[in-house]
């Protein structure tokens, strides 16, 4: 009952004119960012984070900037479908699975119907996830309150282990990305002993302040990813003209029930996949598509414009984005790069993410949760009402959009830290990210690591002080132990697979010899 | 692509070794501090030293980069099997034009300040790279710095560097601040 009262209060705060306006603005920006190929929720949130300081200055609270950024996140999940359906290029990786059936449906002349299914399925996914989140978050936070340093470090280990075990990328490269992010977060001063360290090239001017999170995040997402997109698509992104009338929208809404099964699968599956660090909305939507197809009676219709083939991934990516918020808000561990940026934002606004947030900052938490419901409703309304407008805006050539994003990145970094060296560093990181991305180095783990580094190191070191340098503390404690063991299993999982394959091959070899 | 995979892995390995070397450094105010004295897990019963975390992370990064080299030798990864060039001709042009443009943009900030540099960068990107007409180019290239000035300098009171163009802005400050 308490939860419902808190939620009602939260929704009321989220409905205040300023917060409502910010949620609306965030959703619109998110829809655009999500729809634009090459830009995803993480680019939008990272590039706009420095600009939220002004929102905090005006409103005097951290809630409003967070509502704004969360609305961008939400909007982007809706927006990805627009370009997947009309352009055939996913607006963001989270909408890759939407192209499988969304594009064929659009090519059959039913682009309007595909867009409506995507919007309504996203709304359903978001709503289901919000309800589960509202119920689960306070419970998880109250359990997490019992966590000490070893438990928190074990959770960090688990977060990184999921990237290694479940990330699906090349393992050594994933690990390099994680280690690099963690090392970058250690540059500057050791916060425990106060000793300067890793002053690279002995430069105090460049490195004594440490390397700020946004420098890496905007370098990767504002510069590196943009260069990569330009290199991959060569500015060659043309919109297929989709003709949509309001009447199409109306009839498609009435026919939405044809896509209920995919919506149900996506909404539930998406949330639970979203909770896992490293998993998030992209694998969530792909899995939902797979399960929906697997359990369907008419599998052959998938890939040719099946309504469930659109509703499953779209409901899943929205549901997963809320799911990813759960560990971020309750444990202080982000489930996706976007939530990593949100977490960093919370730290910058003076909040301490983690389980105490629910008890210490209810004025922040509940309006934010309330805003999930509000933003979800705004997103579906804006999406349905303005589909033709978005299609028009999407025709903005990349040759104008890309330089604008570069300018925003360069200005944003200076506005955040007021140091021109940070801007140069961002450019170096950006070019480096581009060069590594061509060789399939995953970059999201590095961004996650630079956020988690300042939490992971002190918890590890304080745990080791507690145990006189004995690492077994992470195994012997009742809560930390199982988490650490799961993390170790996850890290070893790919190794196990490799050995099994090898044994199998050797077995075959043995028979032939 | 194959050569680039190897060169990158070796570069990361060398970076890791440098970072391990740097992590072992004692504080500059204590010349007697021995290198690598700070990387232990429990130094004098006070837990790990300041170099513990970055040193072992760098060591782990070194091992990971060696694993990339092993995978390269066994042709396990896509880039290590690929015969395609790392960056084709057009890719190199894109990197030179945009990456180079960004370097010049940042360099110009030191002389012309943010607003002058933004204007020139946008003209370069939209007119010369994007091949749009002058009208659109000038509209965007002027609107963006003007918006930035009112947003940052006037509304947020975050003063962006103006380089040698500073005197031009003084009358604007008189009017708006």
Q: Topology of this structure?
A:
The complex is a heterodimer of chains A (513) and B (177).
Chain A: H1 2-14, H2 17-35, H3 41-48, H4 52-59, H5 63-86, H6 96-144, H7 149-166, H8 171-186, E1 188-189, E2 196-197, H9 204-207, H10 213-233, H11 246-254, H12 260-275, H13 281-294, H14 307-330, H15 337-348, H16 356-360, H17 362-385, H18 387-393, H19 398-417, H20 420-438, H21 444-466, H22 473-476, H23 480-512
Chain B: H1 2-23, H2 52-73, H3 78-81, H4 89-129, H5 134-156, H6 166-176
Question: Would you write up a description of this structure?
Answer:
The complex is a heterodimer of chains A (513) and B (177). Chain A is mainly α and 513 residues long. Chain A has one domain. Chain A contains 23 helices and 2 strands. In chain A, strands 1-2 form a two-stranded antiparallel ribbon. In chain A, helix 5 packs antiparallel against helix 14 and helix 6 crosses helix 12. Chain A is globular. The N and C termini of chain A lie far apart (71 Å). Chain B is an all-alpha fold and 177 residues long. Chain B has 2 domains: 80 residues; 87 residues, no CATH class. Chains A and B meet through helix 4, helix 8, strand 2, helix 10 and helix 19 of A and helix 1, helix 2, helix 4 and helix 5 of B.
The number of helices of chain B is 6
Most extensive protein-chain contact, per-chain counts: A-B, 63 and 73 residues
Number of separate strands of chain B: 0
Broad shape of chain A:
globular
Beta-strand content bin of chain B? under 5%
Biggest sheet strand line-up of chain A: 1-2
Question: How much helicity do the residues of chain B have?
Answer: 55-70%
Largest sheet of chain B: none
- How many domains would you count in the coordinates of chain B? 2
Identify the notable features of this structure and list them briefly.
heterodimer; A: 513 residues; mainly alpha; two-stranded antiparallel sheet; 23 helices; B: 177 residues; 2 domains; 0% strand; flat
């Amino acid at each position: 009952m308490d939860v419902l009262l808190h939620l009602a209060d939260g929704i009321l705060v989220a409905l205040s004119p300023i917060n409502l306006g910010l949620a609306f603005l965030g959703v619109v920006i998110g829809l655009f960012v999500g729809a634009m190929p090459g830009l995803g929720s993480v680019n939008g949130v990272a590039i706009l984070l420095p600009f939220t300081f002004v929102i905090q200055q005006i409103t005097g609270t951290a809630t409003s900037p967070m509502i704004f950024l969360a609305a961008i996140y939400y909007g982007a999940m809706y927006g990805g479908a627009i370009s997947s359906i009309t352009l055939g290029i996913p607006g963001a990786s989270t909408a890759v699975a939407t192209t499988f059936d969304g594009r064929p449906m659009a090519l059959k002349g039913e682009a309007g119907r595909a867009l409506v299914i995507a919007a309504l399925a996203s709304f359903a996914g978001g709503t289901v996830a919000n309800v589960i989140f509202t119920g689960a978050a306070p419970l998880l936070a109250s359990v997490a309150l019992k966590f000490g340093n070893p438990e928190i470090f074990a959770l960090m280990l688990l977060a990184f282990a999921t990237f290694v075990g479940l990330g699906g990328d090349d393992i050594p490269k994933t690990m390099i990305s994680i280690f690099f992010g963690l090392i970058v977060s250690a540059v500057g001063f050791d916060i425990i002993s106060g000793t300067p360290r890793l002053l690279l090239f002995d430069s105090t001017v460049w490195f004594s302040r440490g390397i700020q999170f946004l420098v890496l995040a905007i370098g990767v997402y504002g510069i590196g990813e943009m260069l990569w997109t330009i290199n991959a698509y060569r500015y060659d992104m043309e919109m297929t003209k989709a003709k949509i009338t309001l009447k199409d929208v109306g009839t498609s809404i009435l026919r939405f029930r044809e896509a209920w099964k995919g919506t149900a699968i996506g909404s539930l599956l998406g949330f639970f996949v979203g909770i896992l660090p490293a998993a998030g909305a992209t694998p969530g939507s792909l899995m939902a598509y797979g399960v929906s197809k697997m359990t369907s009676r008419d599998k052959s219709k998938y890939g040719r414009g099946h309504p469930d083939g659109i509703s499953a991934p779209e409901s899943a990516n929205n549901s997963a984005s809320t799911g990813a918020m759960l560990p971020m808000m309750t444990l202080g561990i982000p489930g996706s790069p976007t939530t990593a940026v949100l977490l960093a934002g919370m730290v910058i606004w003076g909040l301490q993410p983690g389980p105490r947030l629910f008890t210490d900052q209810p004025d922040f938490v509940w309006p934010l949760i309330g805003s999930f419901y509000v933003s979800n409703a705004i997103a579906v309304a804006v999406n349905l009402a303005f589909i033709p407008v978005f299609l028009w805006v999407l025709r903005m050539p990349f040759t104008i959009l890309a330089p604008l994003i570069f300018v925003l990145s360069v200005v944003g970094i200076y506005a955040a830290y007021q140091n021109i060296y940070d801007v140069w560093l961002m450019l170096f990181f950006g070019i480096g990210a581009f060069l590594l991305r061509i060789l399939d180095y995953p970059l999201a783990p590095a961004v996650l690591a630079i956020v988690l580094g300042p939490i992971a190191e002190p918890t590890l070191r304080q745990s080791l002080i507690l145990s006189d340098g004995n690492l077994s503390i992470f195994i012997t404690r009742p809560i930390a132990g199982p988490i650490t063991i799961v993390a170790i299993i996850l890290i070893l999982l790919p190794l196990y697979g490799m050995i099994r394959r090898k044994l199998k091959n050797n077995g075959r070899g043995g028979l032939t010899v | 692509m194959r050569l680039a995979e190897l060169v990158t892995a070796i570069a990361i390995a060398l970076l890791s070794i440098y970072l391990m070397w740097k992590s072992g450094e004692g504080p500059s105010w204590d010349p007697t501090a021995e290198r690598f004295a700070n990387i232990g897990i429990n130094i004098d019963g006070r837990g790990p030293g300041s170099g513990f975390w970055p040193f072992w992370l760098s060591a782990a990064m070194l091992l990971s980069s060696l694993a990339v080299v092993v995978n390269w030798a066994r042709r396990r990864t896509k880039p290590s099997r690929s015969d395609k060039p790392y960056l084709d001709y057009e890719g190199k042009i894109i990197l030179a034009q945009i990456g180079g443009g960004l370097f010049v943009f940042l360099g110009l900030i030191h002389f012309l300040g943010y607003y002058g540099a933004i204007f020139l960068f946008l003209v370069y990107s939209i007119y010369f790279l994007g091949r749009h007409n002058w009208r659109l180019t000038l509209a965007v290239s002027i609107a963006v710095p003007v918006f930035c000035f009112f947003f940052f300098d006037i509304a947020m009171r975050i003063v962006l560097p103006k380089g040698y163009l500073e005197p031009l802005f003084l009358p604007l400050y008189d009017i708006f601040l």
